[in-house]
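U., I forgot to send this yesterday:
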Amino acid sequence: MTQVKLITLWKRRFDKSNLEDSVTSKAKPKIHVSGLPKILVVLALVIAVVAILLVKKQPQTEATQNVVLVSGASTGERPADQYKYAISNSKPTLVFFHSNNCDSCIQMIQIVNDVFPEFAGQVVLVDVNVYDPQNQALISRVGISYIPTLVFYDRTGESQLFVGVMNGQDLRKKLADVSQEPGP
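Result:
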C-alpha cells in the first residue's frame, strides 16, 4: 500500500496539467542588473568632456602666439570688427580661419607668420580662431566648414577661398595679386 500511495503522489506531482499550473502560477524571476553599466557610461562621458575641455584650454605654442598681425585695424578689435572695417573700406584682406591645435593649422600659421610681414602695410590680416566663441557669427557669415581656410578679398570685394595648407610661394603670389590696384 505504501508503494501505491507513492506512485499516486508521484503521478499527481508530475501530471501534465499540474505541471502547467505550477509553471504559470510562478512569478517570473526578476533579473537584477547592477548599476555598474550605468556608472561606466556616465564615467566615460565625464572623461570625454574633461578631455575636450583640456584640449580647448591648451596653451598656445610658440608658432601660434605671433599670428595676430593686423594692418588697417587696431589689434584690440574683434575679428568680426576687423573684417567689417576692411571690407567696408575696400582694403585688400586675408581672413585666416584656423585653430591653435590642428597640425595643418599650426603649419599654416607659421607660413602666414613668415610671409605676411612683407604685405603688412598693403593687406589687412584678420586672424580668426574658430574655437573662440566670439568668432562664431563671422564663421557662419563666411560659411567656413574646414580649417585652415584662407579667404582673400581684393579691393573690389571679390573673394577667393583656399582650404588647406598653402605653401609660402603661393601665399606670397596671392597676397601680391589682391594688393594690386584695380586696372581701368
